[in-house]
Amino acid sequence: RSSSELFNPRRGNLTSDTPVTMSSSETPPYGVYPPQSTTITEQPTWAANIKYFFTTADRKCMSEQGIDLSLYSDVVANAPSIYFATLNTPNEPSFMPMATPPRPWTSEMSTTFKNWINTKTPFGVGPVHPLPSTEEVLVAADAAGGRVRKDITALSPDEMLLLKKAFAGVMALPPTDRNSFFWVGGQHWYPVSSGLWCTHHEDRFLAWHRAYMLQFEDALRSIEGCETVTLPFWDFQSENVPEVLFSAPFEQFIVTSEATGGKPIGPGDYPVPYVAGGETNRNSIQTINNLIAQQGNNSAKARASAAMKAAHFDGATNAEGFHNNIISAHDTLHDICGKTTGDQGVTGFEPIFWFFHCNWDRLWWKWQVQNNATTVDTLIASMKYPNTWLKVEGPLGTIPPFETPPGVPYRTDDTIDSVKSLGIHYTPAAGDHGSKLKQSAKRAKHGEEEQHLSHAPHASGSLTGTQLRKGARVAQYASVLIKGIQKLEIPGTFRVQLLRDGKCIMSESYFQPAVPKDCSTCKKKTLINVNFLVPLEEVTSGKISFRIRTSVKKAMMPNFPLKLCGDPSMNIRLMLEPVVA
Prior knowledge:
By secondary structure, the protein is α+β, with helices and mostly antiparallel strands. The protein is built from 17 helices and ten strands.
């Protein structure tokens, strides 16, 4: 069986418009008509209240008028019109929402909506929804015939033997076989795609890699006797690198002469010779563990943690959302693991790539569940900024090269519901439970203040008059912004390092191909900024500077000349913390 034949999701769509009855303390389900509330909310937010006011029928009706009621920015732009269209009085009944039988908003709902407008339409934060337990995941997957992905450290001896058999099997397949480790790994860049499918640092990043993980898992299942194997994840936040990943067949991949004909698989000065006999190059287990343990608000762990606390999703360019924080953590972990994973052109050939990328997909699904964003409409409702990549018709709504069935391009929308559309379930990782109440209370207390530099303490470079009602204090942190890095001039993945008295105190990596000028996605955004949140004493107790380092030899190691990458500037500003009590 080919991976394209196996890659055939079960689709599920939310269509119910049935009214529901619930107490005011419960969270209303999204996509159904909200309860006829008799309570007025004085300080409503989009995430906790307003997004639940619109039914599937409402959204369908207004989409024909070019308004997406799932999207925060569209509702904000049309809020006054929505208020007057839904206002229901004895003398002037509302003509919206349209439905048979009629179901106008209650006066309490209208008043709550008006309060939202009068308080400047805050996005706010919603409740943190509980994650299912391991037992609940297993029961649900068994009932639906789905797949269960587990923490690699939780695999039984038999499950580990099956996984090793599947990996060894795909590695042994001829490179022209579309289920081979070489073929599937090469779709990330070289030699199959030549970068045409790159979705890094753009909105479809997580969706593309979710489909990619499924394609690789299907390839593993194509090996005889491995039809039930699933791809496990490595939870780098709570675990050191599992030692099993440094044993066969996970420790390396050797490129065969049959795959390359004795020639490099792509242009560029690769850190390992990707010709016949070329081996993947990984850092030692101690080096990886030490780099992951690195402290600082820009570490991979800190950015991943910030992503899980983010109140809204949004795309690759909004610093405070889930997506951008996950991308930053992803880039740094690629760089941490070694030369091969740090090279976008060949990272798919490194076995460890599949385990930590499975974890990015798990974290996305975990965030979706906790934030009630598991469908296309609910994910759009979790966006603070305009949606440009979901519900898109034509080729722009697809994620090449994936197809289901063969010949039919796979749509981005098809990847959003991991359980209902793809049949993929994740068991919890260590640390997934026990923090729900603490996290929910923290988000509710700090509200949108947590969204600015969400990987940092609750501080901001600017506060509104409303936030300053009780005054503000200068935080014990400073924002150090490295601004205007011309990334196209830097060959390969690079690190931006913040220095005090010439010593690195913080670092953040940016993952990109060896020749970014040849990448159409890279050219969409040529300038980037890197922001460090630094303890104030670190800034004031020495000389602050920065440097850019890249692992590509021809880049004039060890430091890349700043004048050659746009001569970026360094901006430092104090941070403010609002007084809340």
